[in-house]
């Protein structure tokens, strides 16, 4: 699929959160190295019993958090991929509300946040899929 992490909008709420979509283990490992994450050599990209997961990274100095949604789309059709991305969007949302100490967000706030996270992840997936099909030098 795509050989790099696609970082998506921070516009869910004004906050120090970044969300990225990673579609290959090589891209995940390169991104952890680029971000200078300690222990990156041993971190699992996706657990063996899953096709997707959320990896949470935190900068101890700035408090900034990054969520890397890792997805192995091989063998999945578009609807299944969307389902996996929505599932992981819920986990990103859960991490966000946990990190801000929110125990009871309103139903609408939660629904809009998950919708926004899902749409940005699906958009990043679509862009990665499009760019994979293009050859260098082609328009």
Give an account of the 3D structure.
With 139 residues, the protein is an alpha+beta fold. The chain has one domain (6-128). The protein contains three helices and four strands. The protein has helices at 25-34, 78-99, 107-133; strands spanning 6-8, 17-22, 52-58, 65-71. A four-stranded mixed beta sheet has the order 1-2-4-3, with helices on both faces. Helix 2 (78-99) crosses helix 3 (107-133). The longest helix is centred in the C-terminal third of the chain and has 27 residues, at 107-133. It starts with 5 loop residues before the first strand and ends in a 6-residue tail after the last helix. 24% of the residues are buried.
Give a quick precis of the structure:
42% of the residues lie in helices and 17% in strands.
Morphology: globular
Please provide the ordered H/E string of secondary-structure elements: EEHEEHH
For the report, how would you describe the main beta sheet? 4 strands, mixed
Structural class: alpha+beta
What is the subunit organization of this protein?
A: single chain
How would you write the strand order of the largest sheet? Answer: 1-2-4-3
Unreliable residue stretches? 135-139
| Number of discrete domains | 1
Helix content: 40-55%
Number of strands: 4
- Proportion of residues in extended strands: 15-25%
């Amino acid at each position: 699929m795509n050989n790099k992490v696609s970082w998506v909008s921070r516009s869910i709420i004004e906050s120090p959160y970044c969300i990225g979509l990673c579609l290959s283990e090589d891209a995940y490992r390169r991104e952890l190295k680029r971000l200078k994450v300690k222990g990156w050599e041993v971190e699992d990209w996706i657990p063996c019993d899953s096709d997707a997961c959320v990896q949470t990274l935190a900068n101890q100095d700035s408090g900034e958090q990054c969520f890397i949604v890792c997805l192995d789309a091989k063998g999945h059709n578009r609807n299944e991929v969307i389902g996996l991305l929505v599932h992981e969007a819920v986990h990103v949302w859960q991490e966000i509300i946990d990190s801000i100490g929110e125990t009871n967000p309103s139903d609408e706030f939660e629904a809009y946040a998950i919708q926004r996270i899902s749409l940005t992840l699906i958009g990043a997936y679509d862009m990665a899929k499009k760019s994979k099909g293009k050859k260098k030098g082609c328009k």
